[in-house]
User: Fold this.
Amino acid sequence: MKISKKDALMWFEFFAMLPEDEELLTNQQEIALATFAQIEAAIDARNEKLMAEIPNLHSLGGRTYFVGDPEKFSKGCRSCLTGTGLCAIRKTNKCNIQCKFCYNYGELDRIPPIGEGMWQIGGTKFYEKDIDLLLSIQNKPTGISYVYLEPFMEIEKYYGIIARFHAEGIHQHMYTNGLLCTEENLKALGEAGLDELRFNLGASGCHDKVIENIRIAKKYIPYVGIETPMTPEFYEGFMKKKDAILATGLDFMNCAELHLNPNNIGNYEGEPMYIARLGYVSPTWSREITFKLMKMAGEENWSIVVHDCSNHTKFARGLNLRGKEGGCFGSSDYVCEFTRMPFEAFLPILSDESFAFLEEEPLPYGYNPGDIVL
Assistant:
């Protein structure tokens, strides 16, 4: 069904007014799905044109795209997309700042603790003394990552477990907003064996202190990069300090396509949205910013890898991980994060006169308001 933009807007205005507990009728579900497909097809066509303008674009087996020296492509990302990572280890349930794009926005003071002296690995709670048992029973992953929320809130607790996994030859990477980094704790992480540190530079608004900490981290940690959601605010901040950032000696920049959940979507009210494969909901400008940076990197021969960490990449990640875990053919953890579709979030793009569907056709009989018994 190639629903027209006019009909799609009319129906989505109706869907947005329905009570949360009211389900769509079967024909209405088809209308909603056809609308999402029309929006996504138009965004995909735009993205293909933008990608065609990027010089020396590389692909990791069709799983993701990047610009730059393939040898500098993050080993953590390679583990995530082709190995048996991403294995997330959780410890710290607090953060020192609150970002509008954070998936835990508005609930940072209600994040449950992992447990005193405990680590969450694969959804299971472990003491550090249990790691030997874990490694003796299960196959070790190619890579692990330290997430949730800001590890530098209690970074001294991480050194021992990092050293243990380092002894096993497992690639380890960590995420931080960078504001609490010091030369002392960065050096300690390097000595413990951390392989890769990723700075969410957008969290601090490209703060000079964090840029300096990226430079310091590179003295002690083999691979250092930026991973941050692509937003207009980040792009503006990055462009103002581009030369200083690139001069830090970092290895890569992972341009994350911002996807939204019930916690943070309200911070982007009024922005044009699309849904990728009926999974992640994202502002349409997020990946467009990625392509701007990738094109710039290719044309100016930046010394770093600029990686398109998009919804497509997350989809490939889920397929790879489930496949390595022995899941059934086609299984993945890539799903929509909304229990009820936020139809109102798609009204801005459907109301945008400059946004057009690629093809349109009249609704068939049975799909117009007068044809459906409400």
About this structure: Residues 26-52 form the longest helix (27 residues). The chain has twelve helices and 13 strands. The domain at 53-339 is CATH 3.20.20.70 (TIM Barrel).
